[in-house]
Amino acid sequence: MPRINTEYRDDARKKIFAAALDLAMENGWDAITLDAIAQNVGVTKPALYSYFDNLDALLLEVNLEVARNIQAGLKTTFAQNNDIHDIIRSLADLIFEQQKPYANIIFQLPTRLRQDPKHREEFACLFDDSRIIIRDGLARVKSRGNLLDAVDPDAVTCMIIAMTLGLQTNSDFLDMDVAAAKKIWIDAVERLLMIVPGNGQ
Fold first, then answer.
1. What is the DSSP string of 70-135?
2. For the domain bounded by 1-52, which CATH number is listed?
3. 162-200 pLDDT per residue, tens
4. Helix 103-115 × helix 153-173 angle, to 10°
5. Which CATH superfamily does the domain covering 56-192 fall into?
6. Do residues 92 and 185 touch, judged by C-beta distance below 8 A?
C-alpha cells in the first residue's frame, strides 16, 4: 500500500510540475500562479501545498529540471558520439530544437537568480557542471587526435557558451529561423575548434 501511495504522489508531483512548465513555456513566469496550476491539473489550490511548500519552491523545481535536462543532453551527446561533426550537430539539435520550448524559462533565469541569491549557488554549480561536461568531452576528442593541439578545450568551451547564449537570444527575440540559427552556430563552433567544416545542416 505505501508503494501505491508513493507512486500516486510522484505522479501528482509530475503533473503539477508539467502544468507549471507548460504555463512558463507559453506565457512566461508571471503566468504561473497556484490558481492556474490547480485549474490545469484539476485539484484544489490547498491540495498543491501537500506537494510543494509554496509557489517559489515549485518554480525552483521547474528551473532545476530545465537545467538538469540540458545537462543530461550534454552527457548523452558526448557519450554517444565519437566524431566531432556528429557531436557538433547533436549539440546544435539540443540547443536549438530540443530546448526551444524552454526559451521563456532560460531567458528569465538570470533575472530570477539575481532576485533569489539563496538558489543562485545551486544553479551556478549546475551551470559549471555543464561547462565541465563540454570541456571534458572536447578534451577527450582532442586526446584521440581529432582536434589540433592549439585548441584549448577550456577556452573554447567558454566561447561556445557565450556564443550560444547570444545566438539563442537573437534567434528567439528576432524570430530567426531555427535552421538558420543552427547553421550559424555549427559554422562558428567549427571555426572555434579549427576543424574542416562538415556537412552541417
1. HHHHHHHHHHH--SHHHHHHHHHHIIIIITGGGHHHHHHHHHHHHH-HHHHHHHHHHHHHHHHHHH
2. 1.10.10.60
3. 998 888 777 667 777 888 889 999 999 999 999 988 754
4. 110
5. Tetracycline Repressor, domain 2 (1.10.357.10)
6. yes
